[in-house]
Amino acid sequence: MSRVHVLRHGHVHNPDGVLYGRLPEFRLSDAGQQMAQAVADHLVGSGAKVGRVVASPLLRAQQTAAPVAAAYGLDIATDERIIEADNAFAGGPTPTPLTLAHPRNWWLLRNPFRPSWGEPYKEQAARMHAAIVDAAAANPGSETVMVSHQLPIWVARCAAEGRSFVHDPRSRECALASLTSFDVDGDRVSFVGYSAPAAHIEAPR
């Protein structure tokens, strides 16, 4: 059995409030850099035996992975399967109830159970499951840290716990620079814990 910690990236520099989704240029803020270092310090301090670091191709994920990789003297592997979920609203302002109520958005909101405005939950769960299983298989003798994004991480946890994917986004237990940990036995992925080692670092609004 291998353990895989899936780390959400740190706070992003985004003064204009863009829903950045898969846009490639968004980097960590100064607070995000501090969060990434706090996670690395936490892992080392807790005695975690990390033997592999994997990240989404997006800049904010690569930057979050860097202090962990440096702390353990490792390179960062990149896995496209743990990228942010696709979202039709990406590139514009973060949606509000008022903007979502506009008639031009009704078609995108026709099926919140799928969801119709972005990548289906089932597809996210499948790619995250495959990536976690493959990461464990590639590093059976120690722990793996994978840097991903809030929604794919939450969907992976729901899948591991047998929960419904349909949820209120405000209910996700997946803070910035938090660790969602799984044990992997063959093709079986089990949720084993959640921690937020960077919770003491205030994220700018």
Automatic annotation (TrEMBL):
UniProt protein name: Histidine phosphatase family protein
Record keyword Cell membrane present: no
Entry-linked CDD domains: HP_PGM_like
Keywords from the named record: Hydrolase
Keyword Hydrolase: yes
Tree of life domain: Bacteria
Provenance organism: Demequina litoralis
Matches recorded under InterPro entries: His_Pase_superF_clade-1 (IPR013078), His_PPase_superfam (IPR029033), PGM_Phosphatase (IPR050275)
Cited Pfam families: His_Phos_1
Enzyme Commission number(s) from the entry: 3.1.3.-
GO molecular function, one term: hydrolase activity
